[in-house]
Amino acid sequence: YAEAERMVEDLIRGRKQLDDYELLFVGYALADTHVHQAEGVAKLTQLVQRRPSWGLARAMLAHALANLGGDFDRRDTIVAAKEQLNIADAILPNNRFVNAVGLHVLTVERVLAAQHGLQLAELDSAVSQLASMLAEQHPKYLYGRIMRARYFSAMNHPELALTESTLAREEGGASGVTS
Question: Among 148, 141, 158, 98, which residue's Cα sits nearest to residue 127?
């Protein structure tokens, strides 16, 4: 952990040029914080510009953009997240990680749409179908379970959210993953 923390500090201070894999994970880690969220998105954007055909980087950027858009009520950022997601899906069709990120992006979009009183029927259908597809095709995929739990929570289904969270914790613990 201390080494990762130093790597992030080096990145923030600009003292180190990161290779693509370091940039991917450090950018994602930064984007997953409220303090350095925009910096993380910038690093992931830089990586996508450097390696435009890397579907994983595009999916991680889509996730980070959705977080940024959701946290700061920016629908334009959600549109950008969906654009990155569509490209990632074209590069990695039917990929379980990309699909789980898609569920996250659509869930954030749905929450913002509801807050602004926008039409929800089409979006509700799309996000519900994606959640169902993930459950059917990848029932034990930990990240998919976590995204389904967040989806159920956002849709005000606490009992389903709790079930998914509990299963994720149990299955994650059995596989050595604790969060």
Answer: 148
Instruction: Give buried/exposed letters for 35-49 (b at 16+ CB in 10 A, else e).
Output: ebbebbbebbbebbe
Position 162 scores a pLDDT of 93
The model's pLDDT over 59-81, given as tens digits with 9 standing for 90+, comes to 999 999 999 999 999 999 999 99
Each residue of 92-150: pLDDT tens digit? Answer: 999 999 999 999 999 999 999 999 999 999 999 999 999 999 999 999 899 999 999 99
Q: What angle do CA 35, 38, 39 make, to 5 degrees?
A: 85
Q: Which two tokens stand for residue 114?
A: 């509801």
Largest CA distance in the chain: 49
In angstroms, what is the C-alpha Rg of the chain? 16
User: Are the C-beta atoms of residues 110 and 123 closer than 8 Å to each other?
Assistant: yes
Region for 92 from its dihedrals, namely left if φ exceeds 0, alpha if ψ lies in -120 to 50, beta otherwise: beta
Residue 46 to residues 24, 42, 43, 172, Cα–Cα distance (Å):
10, 6, 5, 32
